[in-house]
Specification:
Elements: E1 5-9, H1 13-25, E2 29-33, H2 36-46, E3 50-54, H3 62-72, E4 79-84, H4 89-97, E5 102-105, H5 111-123, E6 125-128, E7 134-140, E8 147-153
Parallel strand pairs: 1-2, 1-3, 3-4, 4-5
Antiparallel strand pairs: 6-7, 7-8
Helix pairs in contact: 1-5, 2-3
Organism: uncultured bacterium (gcode 4)
Pfam families: Response_reg
Protein name: Response regulatory domain-containing protein
């Protein structure tokens, strides 16, 4: 099994199950919490690499949940992806200003899109090359641990 741990914090059990099935197929180690309070417990015990955090949930609002997670787990360096149908620029900006690493809109995001975002957050490190128009990309395979280096030339 992969050492990437994902915590899904979602009160809609059908949606959480759909994402859990996809993440399991990708060999991620996955746990589900259905509210902010149980998410806090899972963060301290499970120590996830990525948290997919719903905004509208019972017991504790997303803001407080996010604040407590960041206070409890600064050494985890976990990535937090906000997951909601709130689509206003203000909502998205507030999440990003308050420690979120990414924002996915539920209505237009598939489980495969979420997997791609996880890859982007965890494994792709873009570095500017000294040559204009070049980008160096480094990826680490989550299954075998091999590092792949790509030097991409961008043509306008």
């Amino acid at each position: 099994m992969n050492n990437i741990k994902i915590l899904i914090v979602e009160d809609d059990s059908e949606l959480a199950t759909m994402y859990k099935i996809k993440f399991d197929k990708e060999w991620y180690n996955v746990k589900v919490a259905d509210n902010g309070l149980s998410a806090i417990t899972e963060v301290t015990e499970f120590e996830p690499s990525v948290i997919l955090l719903d905004i509208m949930m019972p017991s504790m609002d997303w803001f407080e949940t996010l604040r407590v997670i960041r206070q409890l787990a600064p050494s985890l360096n976990c990535k937090i992806i906000m997951f909601s149908n709130l689509n206003s620029r203000d909502d998205i900006d507030k999440c990003m200003q308050l420690w979120a690493d990414a924002y996915l809109l539920k209505a237009s995001t598939t489980p495969k899109d979420a997997v791609n975002k996880i890859w982007e957050l965890l494994w792709i490190k873009k570095q500017d090359d000294s040559n204009k128009g070049h980008t160096l990309i480094q990826k680490t395979c989550p299954h075998c641990g091999q590092t792949i280096h790509l030097d991409i030339e961008i043509h306008p």
